[in-house]
Structures are given as C-alpha cells and as structure tokens.
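Protocol step 6 of 9: fold each sequence in the batch and record its structure tokens directly after the sequence line. For illustration, a two-sequence batch is reproduced in full.

Sequence one:
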Amino acid sequence: MAKVKSFEEESRKRKKNAAERQKESDREYARHKTMRLIRILLILAILIGAAVYFYVRYRGKIYVGYDVISSVERTKVDGAKDVKLGNSILTYSRDGAHSLDVKGVMTWNQSFEIQDIQLATCQNVCAICGYNGHEIFVQSSDSQLGQIQTNLPIKNLAVSATGRVTAVLEDSKVMWLNTYEPGGQNIYEGQFHMSQSGYPCAISLSPNGNLLAVSFLFVEEGNVVSNVAFYNYGPVGDNQSDQLVSAFTYRDMIVPEIHFMTNGAAFAVADNRLMFYSGEQVPTTKKEHILDREIKAVYYDQNYVGLIFASDRADAKYVLRIYNAAGENVAERYFDMDYLGVFFEQGTYTLYSATECYIYTMAGGCKYEGKFDKNVTLMVPTETPYRYRIVTDSSIDLIQLN
C-alpha cells in the first residue's frame, strides 16, 4: 500500500510540475506576443509619422523653378493647334491631324482638307469633322478607330471614350441626332422639328456612351426657352419614348454648353446659371448657381469645373471659380494673366499662359509662380507630381519643378 501511495503522490507531483511549466510557457508566449505586437505598433507609428511628415512637407513645399528632364524636337505647321488627348498630344490643322505619345513619337497621322474644323474629345478619344461636312474621323491617342459617313451636313458632334459618336445633322426644318459606332454603324436616330423641340445647340456623350445630353433652344411666345434633355441608350432608355429619361426647362436663358464629367455627373452652363446633374441612368438636378457676370471660358475634368469671368476688381482682369462634382464652390482666384488654359490635379489647379505658370492648392496656398523659358502652346500634367510636359512650336519638354 505504501508503494502505491508513493506512486500516486509522485504522479500528482509530475502532473503539477507539468501544469506549472505549461503555465510558465503560456506566460512567456503571451509576453513574447505582447512584445511583438508592441514592436509592430511602434514600427507602424514610425512609418505613419514619417509619412505624415513627408506629406506635410510635400503639401507645404513651394517650388521656385524647374529643370528640363528631356526634350523632343517637333515641327509645327502654321495654324495648327495642340490639345491634350489622354496622355498624348493631338495636333490638328486644316490639312490633317496627328498624335504624339509621351516620348514624342507619332502614333498616327490622318490627312484631310477641312476648312472649319469641329473637334470633340473624351479622355483619350477624339472625333474630327468639318462644319457642314459629311465625314467624321474617330481616333484614340494610340490608333485610328474608324470613319463615319453621313448623308446630311454635320452641325455639331460629341464623342465618348468608347469611340461612339453623336452628330447633329441638318435637313431643311428637321434636325437629326444620329449616333454611330466608330466603324460607321448608325445605331440610333432621333428626328426633331425645330418649331416644336427647338435647335440642339449643345450635346455631350457620357464617357461610356450610355447617356446623351442635349441642350435645345427655342422661342415660346416671344421668350427664349432652353430645354436640357438626357437620353439613355441602355435598357432603361429602351422602356421610354425616344430613349428620353429626364428633361429640365429653363426660361429666359440660353444653355450653350453641356458636358459629362463622369458617367454619373454632368453640368451645363447658361448665360446666367451653372447647373449640375447626377445619375448614371436617369440624371436629376443636383445643384445650381446663379452667375452674376459674363463667362469668358470653361474648363473641366472628372473632378472639377472651372469658370473664368471678367473681374469685378480694379487690380485683376479675371477671376477663376472652381466647383467640385457635387456642385460646391471650392476655390476662387483673381488674376491678370492672359491665360491659355487651366487644369486640375491632386488637390491643386494650374493656370498658365504662353509665358508663365501659376499653381495653387484648392485651399488657396501657392505652390509655384514662374515664367517659361520658351513660349508655350500647351501644358499638361503627368502621372508624377509636379512634373509636366510643355509643348512649344519647336519642342515637347518634360520638366520637373524644384
């Protein structure tokens, strides 16, 4: 019996010792896990702190000049114009058009003879025709997408990022709004009598080509009336008469411009009002602003709309007002420069002329004010912050602010 009892006691001791060793092991593992977590959190805090530090420095940095990173020679014919087309540069004149990529290499060249050029762009796609002409050239920044032939004279056109084109065609007292695929297939036709619907003075296609916006102008009992109509080319529009999904009437005003910012955001500019719309299927009004002075120019991208007005102050020629896609006025700037263009990027906006450039944050801070070494025809941003391409008559220069 004594031996059995001794064996049981020894067994209990071994079990107790094993339990204590396991508890100690668990405590050691917990301490190791805690220290590892603390180290990870400390490293994350250091990384976040460094990121915040460099972000604050980046946001607060003021640039005083620029370096030319690379330069490509070019020859530009008299009367030619340069515009941004995606990441490429589109140059067009009465004799033709061509596209240059980021390295200055020509990706396509299209010859034609057009006296009164009509140009529509959307992202990296453009459509070119002549006013009263019958042929539309559809191009992307990389390639030629197709040609469209019409049997009636073209008065206006719009293009989507897919290459779909809508053209306003005139036929006596009837206007046609015909939509084509880039290969020339006529996929939608719309007939409008000017005495009933009015004259389509502005059109725009959404980037995906699903929505068409049209501004109609007509006279009713001696008063000017504008109708802004949205047509849906998808299944939602198929269930509506003439694909019409929404329309808005504006009395005593002309709406000469309408544009899509994204597939679900559009805006229209009247002579005394700025209107924003939202909706990818059935657009509705989002916000309106009454304008108190004459508009000189309109600039926009997928995030912002910029309107330039004649200044109401003696110390400046112009004032730029910037609105976001929600229709909110987010920035304003008075300036004297004889501007060539405005563009927006990464919380900043850039004003430039042939000889100088100004970059400001939406909050009003100045990032850069300086002059160009050459006369510039076009300035475009790149994917790298504060690195730009400046186009002149003789070169395309890649510059980096410093």
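Sequence two, same batch, same settings:
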Amino acid sequence: MSKLYLGTQGWSYKDWLGVFYSEDTDERDYLGEYARHFNTVEIDSTFYGIPRESTVNAWRERTPDGFVFAAKFPQMITHEKKLADSQAETHAFLAAMSLLGDRLGPLLLQFSYEFGPDQMGALDTYLAELPPGFQIAVEVRNRRWLRPEFYALLKGHGVALALQDLYYMPHTYETTAPFVYIRWLGERQRIARFDHIQIDRSAEQARWAEQVKAMLGRGLTVYGYFNNHWAGHSPESVRQFQALVAE
C-alpha cells in the first residue's frame, strides 16, 4: 500500500524557536517535539560522518512508532572517494543506521556536480555490491545524468532517482523504484533566516502535489523533504504541501 511521508531536512534550527518549537524548548528535546508534528525527517549530519551508536539509539528512543528517518551517506563515500575503495565506510555506515530498526527509511547517495555520467560504471558496481534490505536513493547534481540509460541502471538495482526542485536542474518525475524520494532544495543565498516563509512557492507546490497524488495512486510510497532554503521555513512548507495533497 502507498503511504506519504513528509518532513524537513534536519530539525536542529534555533530559528524555529518561538515559531515551530516553543521558545523554551531545550535543544535535546527538538527531535521529540518535531516528531509530534511530522512522521519523517532527513538526517543531514550523517553526511559529515558516521554517527555513534549512542546517537542513533537516542534518535530511535526520542521518536514514536511509525516515525521514519532518511539519511545521507557520508561525504567520504560520495564526494571524497567517489565510491572507490569505500567498502569499509559503507559497511560501517549501514551497520550504524540499521540500529534504527523499523524507523529506518531510505538512504541517500547525494553526489556533487563533478560526479558526472562518466562514473556510471563505478555507480553500477557500487550499487550491485550493496547488501540487500536497504532502500537506496541516488541524487545527481549534473543534468547530463538524466537520460534513459541512467534510469535503466537505477531500475535494475531497485534504486530510486531522487527527484529534486533545484533551481539549476531540470524537473523530472522519473520513478525507478517502488518508492519515491523528493527533495525541495532552493538557493542558499536567497534565505538568511529560517523563521518564516519568504518566497511564494504556491505554483511549484501545486505542481508537485498533483505529481505526488498520481504517484500515490499508482501504489508508490513517497518520501518528501523540504529544505529551509526552498521558501524560508520548511515546517510551514510541509504543512502547505500536506494541505494540497489532502484536497
């Protein structure tokens, strides 16, 4: 059965105090408070390093049944090594994230612009060597990837193409797995604070909502994550989108 998981990219933003979190919320309580509102979140901190076991256990303990975490693969794997000779880091990362148990959702391989389609063979090999049992999504930042042979590669591995709303990337709604992974990203230089909506994204919200409703109608599970830089305050972006999908 299809299901919709909507949340934000991260939860530790002091700009949300007094707006999304109550003014006196302790930073240690952010995640528990966040989980009262949304059923998923994308972890950004894993991009900078593999989390400690105690950290992962704390994430699990502070969230209710049914809550789902998505997380980025470490940049050591995707940006520094560009997948080469990264088996040890990959194993350690997957082992750490597996501690989430039934709260573990998709894991994102986010690549830089410099990781181009000349690396398709390396990506194919890496995906083939991943152990089964994980939902994997791939995000590319170079438009030259967006062609049929890339989509076929992802489909062959049951891996999702991460769909994105990013100002310099063309929109695509290609689905390559039984689930969909969407990221609303924006431009960093346009947003200075994260405490209120600063860019009207109504048209984009409506367009994406129609796409998501169609995906759900096809029986796909959809995971979607809003960045603060997309419109200024990602919790409100989530609420706006929830209302559109519910119509």
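Proceed to step 7 once all outputs are recorded. Observation for sequence two: The domain at 4-246 is CATH 3.20.20.410 (TIM Barrel).
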